Amino acid sequence: MHKTTVGKPKQKVYHRVHELDRVMELQKKPLLILNLKSIIQSQKTESILLRDLEKEVGFVQKWNYMAVIEKYHPIFRVVGGEGSRSPPAVTLSEKAKKIASLESEALVQMEPVLVRNLKKLLMLSVDCRLPLETIQSIATELGLPSDFKNSLILKYPQFFRLDEFNGRVYLHLENWDSSLAVTAREEMLPPISDAQLKRGKKISKDGNFSGPFAFRLKYPIGFRPNVSYLEEVQRWQKMEFPSPYLNARRFEAAADPKARKRAVAVLHELLSLTMEKRLTSAQIDAFHSEYRLPARLLLCLIKHQGIFYITNKGVFSTVILKEAYDGSNLIDKCPLIKFRDNFLALMGRNESSSGISPSTSEYRILT
């Protein structure tokens, strides 16, 4: 009598990249510092009583902020208390105030970038409109000010319009701008020489290919694809596909490989429009219907792990555009990110340094 065994489900290996996991780890204290800076600056006295901090951030988070205040004396200064007639309060140090004063200049430089990116965000949608709440859900990641509805949208009536539809407020694009219908992927394409075209006939060991429809791939160190896999990747890299800025109603992603590749390009473009080239999975999913994203979005991201990286570090699962990072460092920085880096330099240590090895590990996903 033969024994029967229950077959195990097929497993796919997803390789962790510690340097990209560190992107989320490294942002924890900077986020506290920048948020506390904003809280202090929002007060009329440009200081906040320590006893009032709990009202702003909650009881649990208050202790994290207190630890930051105590540790980073070059940024924060406690005044009053201990013999003084006034209760203890926290304010910015003189050096921090000086650097913080440069933020207004960075915001001025950001405005045309934000207007451009908002227009592109709307152009990616099927009707050139998005629910205002969807945009609000990624406002911080885009670099939008908290009052962007009044300070930005209403300032440019020639570009944007707010309308209510089925009980929801939508942001509409007033006029199509064909000059913006070019993706970040296309803008980054290098000129192709005859020698590169000849080399393109050979199978690339890293999956990269010189061509007008190719994506930049960055596979992790531990990922060693076989020849048949690389041949499949090269066929995919060569395959032409419709622009993300063409209306998605014209394509059925479930049935057409070219439409599926277009969906990858839409995700790539969405991440490219954010300041740090990353969004949480929930934030991406909010664009599902307007962008006609794949029904099995997670599997799409996992399949294209040379383009996207999913990290579970931090509070939420986050999708990172791999080509935007060199190790844990963002390559291209907008004026607001540059200002924040300058301010956070007052922390007095190199945030990019860590004892974590840059090697990769892997975990298995059951399918």
UniProtKB/TrEMBL annotation:
<dbReference type="InterPro" id="IPR021099">
    <property type="entry name" value="PORR_domain"/>
</dbReference>
<dbReference type="GO" id="GO:0003723">
    <property type="term" value="F:RNA binding"/>
</dbReference>
<dbReference type="Pfam" id="PF11955">
    <property type="entry name" value="PORR"/>
</dbReference>
<feature type="domain" description="PORR">
    <location>
        <begin position="15"/>
        <end position="350"/>
    </location>
</feature>
<protein>
    <recommendedName>
        <fullName>PORR domain-containing protein</fullName>
    </recommendedName>
</protein>
<dbReference type="InterPro" id="IPR045040">
    <property type="entry name" value="PORR_fam"/>
</dbReference>
